[in-house]
Amino acid sequence: MNDVAIIGGGMTVFQRRLKETGKELSYLATKMALEEAGITKKDIDMVVMGSAPDAFDGIHQKGENLLDGAAGAGKPYVRVFNGGGTGVFAPIAGWWHVASGVADIALVVCEEKMGNCYPHPQTAFRHIWDPILDRPLSPNLVWLFAMEMNRYMTKYNIKKEDIARVAVKNKRNAVGHPCAQLPDENITIEDVLNSEMMAWPVQRLDISPPSDGASALIFCSKDKVRQFTDDPVWVDGVGWNIDSTMWTNRDLSFPRYVANAARMAYKMAGIHNPRKEIDFAEPYDPFDYKELHHMEGLLLCNKGEAPILTREGVTERDGNMPMCPSGGLLGVGNPIAATMGQKICELYWQLAGKAGKRQIPTDPMVGVGQAWGDIMQMATVAVLRRG
Amino acid sequence: MAEKIEGSPGYAPGTRVSTKDIVENKITYTWWEPEVQYSWSLGQAMSKFLTGLKKGKILGRTCIKCDRVLVPPRMFCEYCYGPTDAWIELKDTGTIETYSISYLDSDARRIKKPILIGVISIDGASPQHGFMHYFGEMSEKDIHIGMRVKAVWKSPKDREGAITDIKYFKPLEGGEKK
Amino acid sequence: MSRKVCVIGIGHTDFNSITPDVEWKELMYEACQKAYVDAGVDPRKDVDSFITCAEDYLEGFSIFDEFVPDQIGAVLRPCCTVCGDGLYGLGTAYMQIKTGLMDVVSIESHSKISDLLTMGDILLHAFDPVFERPVMGPVERPRYGGSPEYTKEAPKPLVGSTKEKQRVHPYFLAGMEMQNYLRTTDTTEEECAEVVVKNKMNAFFNPMADYEAKISVDNVMGSEYLFTPLKKLDISPNVDGAITFVLADEKTARDLGVDPIYLSGFGWSSETPWLSTREMFADYASRSSQMAYKMAGITSPKKQIDIVEVDDRFSYKELQHLEAIGMARPGEAGQMLMEGELARDGALPTNMSGGSLGIGNCFEATGMQKALEIITQLRGHAAKRQVPDAEVGLAQAWRGIPSGSGAVTIFERGGA
Ligand SMILES: [Zn+2]
Predict the structure, then answer these.
(1) How far is CA C125 from CA C24, C121, C133, C139, C154, in A?
(2) DSSP state of A42
(3) C306, C330, C411, C333: which is closest to C368 by C-alpha?
(4) Which chains form contacts with chain C, at 3 or more CB pairs under 8 Å?
(5) How many domains does chain C have?
(6) CATH 3.40.47.10, domain A4-118+209-386, yes or no
(7) Predicted model pTM
(8) Strand (E) positions, chain B?
(9) Under an 8 A CB cutoff, do B97 and A17 touch?
(10) ipTM more than 0.95?
(11) Which CATH architecture has domain B44-171?
(12) pLDDT of C359-415, one tens digit each?
């Protein structure tokens, strides 16, 4: 297995609607990553595209349509996809392009253009439901998460205000992020608890917003990395795991597939005690309760313990185990696959000491990023290490 | 191009657009609506399950190897990856595993009267085996996880072999015990 | 790059124009079950990673990846979707095994295209929404109006709004490309028709094929022009079916006691998506074959490769692809065909399976159908269509209209 380093990242602004097309967004993020790495398109051996449902962009085989923006024309180019998990899965695919020895330098681009979908991106989410059992009931995507959140809250006796704390923390963390859609320095728990009820127990400010955006990362083999940096950030472990399609046959209170993916990544990274050996994390937070759910799934605390740690300030940027120092999806925005920007680009920038105002003060060495997708069943995990 | 700032990302490319820009036609855009129609074959398991619903019955499948009763039924068991073994008729009662009170419809439009929706584990099936459905004849205050419920069926002439042949689940008379 | 990657199991359903008796899950289950039995592995214990190749709109889901794990044995295991032809899945599996992280990987791809009632419009949906689609037909007016973000009156599209219903069928693009191919290479329509005759005849000897027929060049030439010069019989009809491969590293294959077929090279490439600036010479096939030859150490493909399966979803594509992958000079493939070189006893047996013209267009499973034939031939299991002494075979596929992307894999028998 070849060691794989990251040498550049890029990210567009995230917003409910951006003027640029999907191709143009892919280009902007790619260009920024190339600039940071100090290379050009001709140095790229292969390209991986990460993008979620075609229905958002409104283009069948949208990977094909986006490829020129992602520097893929005339190159080996492939799109991987597992719903919301794509934001961390595409970089995992970038990793194996290089770790296998097939490529020396691989570019990973993640794009989402949810604003294209009319009347609302939710309309596209209607088609993630089972056509026989679920769709006749005219479901809304938020129902799924409301039902999971309810199960989690009931099982571990968690108060809504302890969940709302996550939204407050992340929207405040996002203040230092130039791409952020919903940064809010002054938001309070009361604001979240008083926001519009969508589908109990989920309220408006519990949810990350749909967005347009793109992000990019460049992966490089060990042989070549010294040309670009003396202090590389390495991909140390990767893991992914899927649970059954039959979500009504599963206990939703604990994401066992996240735990499986985390164990796979930790094993590869040689991590035996994640709570001690991991300095910070970017768990997937499309809803505030998901950050807590995923902290537990990532084995960073006991079941039901994440809300308590959050209440005690452990997960703040200057706490013992910072969570979502980027501002996460709740603060920066949720253009599904493009959240690679908060989950893996952020790990890279934090570990490289490039996170500017968002920099974790404790000089982190190891970080874990995670995404979650499909119908509450897919987990993708990557561990990055400095030096 | 956005201003340069300290740290990475060093700037934030992209041009923000507001709803107002669109309503006032300040943005050039194009429109396309694809003709998208599917007719999914139901396959063996779902065909039988839906035929059962039409007759007012909830059917499951057994997996002897895993000692499971599966509902919704499948022709193969995802745990042992073998074929399932036999059909079994289940009760039309069950327990609420989780639920939500929704103020959104499927296009994220706001609705006044909320929808009560949740997952019901069906009596006679393995623990936590069931499906999603609506709840009725109960208030937002009454509904809770662990509540015992019973299916309310459409009249036989209105049933068409669909999950909606059950109108909703209502509170089971006679209390909370299984 | 020391580990060698082998095919240790294959499984497939029959190919049928419609499959109303099974849902997509049951179709996939059948192919996977057969592949696991063929490889002698238990998917719940022995398979380290699962890959499905699929596109959302062909399946009718926003996230098809959701509806995959149960029927392929992947529950609580690493599993993912690759949005591409099955050959992309084989390449992905190859890389996963080469990293050393995975020993056994399963790849599934299928077509359940009979579930999709509006295929033409879905393929049109792959064209560029700004520059291409408005030229191809009228734009339906918005039907919705109640979104909270908009005023009650639906927004007015600024371009392309008319009352007509008819949109062009996207296969017109193949007609245009064929026109260009015939003119630039001096190939004739009759030569293309001969491809149809050959492949539909080959399909008689392939029990899984659905569109075998004994026809003549006159039949093809006499069939209706649909996208001039493309005629009805030049176009492969749609078919349903599923194919699964199991790949493993060489040591695992030996431990399982399987006689492995090596996956010794693969390549893939994409051309620009801009139709107006794309060249129509299947550059994706040239580039992906060059990459695969390099990986497999093949310097003189025509001599070193014994059997090929190339994408023939339109008759001229077989000839165009043979030229692109270096098996013939431009304009030469038609002659080779007429001289019998592409027949079973010729110098370069091509599409012995019957190809897409004889089996049917299996969409994202097209490449897997080609690879399946190569493996069957290299194993010596191809019965009446067996090519004697086949040692090295090549499978090539394209992602279909309107893409400019494709992949190539090379398989070798024995201790290559
Ligand atoms: Zn079982």
Answers:
(1) 23, 6, 8, 12, 22
(2) G
(3) C411
(4) A, B
(5) 1
(6) yes
(7) 0.96
(8) 58-63, 68-70, 86-90, 93-104, 110-122, 130-134, 148-153, 166-171
(9) no
(10) yes
(11) Beta Barrel (2.40)
(12) 999 999 999 999 999 999 999 999 999 999 999 999 999 999 999 999 999 999 975
